[in-house]
């Protein structure tokens, strides 16, 4: 495989405007969110609240920041583990440009991955719907 084989694949991502817009929007909104958290924390510290409410608000903001960081770390780790699993049989000794996951070495793992991840996603959605339905049903019979 030479570089001319990868050029059409790369051009799909480079020239596809909706992808570029979505990616840019996500990066900009994430950056704005991180910068908006700092003034909010400073305003909460200056404002008068009951001490317990103030502590609760500060801890909620800190929890939000830690949650965002842990989700970022978890997603990065998950992506690394996924690609490591898919690419473990790949032969990089030829030192040619690499532009696709679907080749003779990675196809069995990729096929397995793409068959079972939708099952996990659909199972999670069904569990969430069942729990939401059960919570809604339980609230109807609440004793006052």
Q: Which parts are unreliable, with pLDDT below 50 for 5 consecutive residues or more? A: none
Helix/strand order? HHHH
Total strand segments: 0
Kindly, what is the distance between the CA atoms of the first and last residues, rounded to a whole number of angstroms? 72 Å
- Tell me the count of domains: 2
What's the number of helices? 4
Oligomer: single chain
Structural classification: mainly alpha
Q: β content, as a range?
A: under 5%
What general form does the structure show? extended
Mean pLDDT: 76
The helix content, as a percent range, equals: over 70%
Rg over CA atoms: 23 Å
- Describe the biggest sheet? none
Keywords: Membrane, Transmembrane, Transmembrane helix
Transmembrane segments: 21-44, 56-86, 113-133
């Amino acid at each position: 495989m030479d570089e001319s084989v990868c050029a059409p694949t790369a051009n799909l991502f480079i020239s596809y405007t909706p992808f570029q817009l979505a990616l840019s929007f996500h990066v900009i909104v994430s950056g704005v969110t991180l910068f908006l958290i700092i003034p909010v924390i400073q305003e909460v510290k200056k404002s008068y609240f009951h001490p317990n409410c103030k502590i609760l608000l500060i801890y909620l903001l800190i929890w939000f920041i830690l949650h965002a960081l842990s989700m970022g770390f978890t997603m990065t780790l998950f992506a690394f583990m996924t690609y490591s699993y898919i690419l473990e049989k790949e032969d990089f000794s030829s030192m040619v440009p690499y532009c696709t996951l679907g080749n003779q070495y990675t196809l069995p793992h990729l096929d397995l991955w793409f068959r079972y991840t939708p099952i996990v996603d659909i199972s999670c959605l069904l569990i969430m719907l069942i729990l939401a339905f059960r919570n809604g049903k339980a609230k109807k019979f609440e004793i006052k």
